[in-house]
Design brief:
By secondary structure, the chain is of the alpha/beta class. The protein is built from 13 helices and 12 strands. It has 2 domains: 7-30 and 288-378, Aspartate Aminotransferase, domain 1 (Alpha-Beta Complex); 36-283, Aspartate Aminotransferase, domain 2 (3-Layer(aba) Sandwich), CATH 3.40.640. It binds pyridoxal-5'-phosphate.
Amino acid sequence: MADTYDVESVRALFPAARRMTYLDSAFQTPMSVPVRTAIESFLEESSTQAGPKSVWLEEAERVRTQVAALFHASPAEIAFTKNTSEAMNIAASALPLRPGENVLMVQGDHPNNAYAFLNLKRKGVELRFIPMLPVMNADSFRPHIDSKTRAISMSYVTFHAGHRFDVASVGALCRERRLDFVVDVMQAVGVVPIDVRKIGATFVGCGTHKGLLVPHGLGLLWWDSHHTEMEPAYLATASLANAPADLIANPDDLTLAASAKRFELGNLNLLGIRALGAALDLIARVGVEAICAHCFDLGDRLIEGLEALDVGLVGPRERRHRAPHIIVAALDPVSWAADLAREGIRVSPERGGIRLSLGMFNDASDIARFLDVMRRRAGR
Ligand SMILES: Cc1ncc(COP(=O)(O)O)c(C=O)c1O
């Protein structure tokens, strides 16, 4: 396996990777040195100069441009949110849905995506959960669409089994049937290349504490700005096209910003945005394609090792259907999570298995260490 980038120099930027075998990036990634340095610089500015906020706001616009590059989008289509849940709720409540209409979702999808849409039941909108199959594409949804279906929402990569669903084919179906399409890319972002136009979504949302390497509390929303009919459920000065210069609310002009700022509320998480800028610099230096290829290689090695021990997978095995970095081994979640923790190996218990998840800093030694423990336990 030839590394596609200098993994060891990236690994050196993640101190936690030296202290433990970290196979839990689908839960959260450990903090890297550049992100820590960025946060410390913000704290220093904050404590010695109290800002200046105007400089921080200019920085937020630069980071917005970095996010746009990551998504292959325009900065005007990016809003900062608090997390995935907020992004999904903003999207769900912006869809122009009427009582009696329905939205299709996938049974067992992440609850933070599902509840955003279940909340629409209050408006008389019906949520229809379709079965989660090992492969989900346009054909999985097509039979469930009827004359009242208005939207589909789904995760690109599943958190509990590492499926990587064919969102582009679902997006094409949505365009053909004039449906809105909302995609949760939380488990994909930073590891799987994302081109929002190829997905063909109306909204794409995520948090930044997994593949985007930022502490909790910052999220992102991409909005296809052709959809000017999408309006925010909440309103703040930031959402307006013409914010009042005298800071006295003007009841006669509630024109929404033409950009995705219409979905932003009040002051931004400027500390998190500083951290995101540093994280995106690091990710761009390595390249998402390279991170993806590296995780696929490590993932293959992990799967082969598990199979040699007769341990099956909960999710898909084939590269074309699986996420590069999420492998769920069919092991008793409770006892194995505790055993591995005792061995200094960080994983997550998931539905029906132990989730092993990779980041840009993992290397072959992490896989070897995990498999050694497995072999020892199996008496091999
Ligand atoms: C697919 C998916 N969506 C959403 C979330 C989390 O939502 P939030 O960012 O709101 O905490 C996770 C994991 O934490 C996830 O795996």
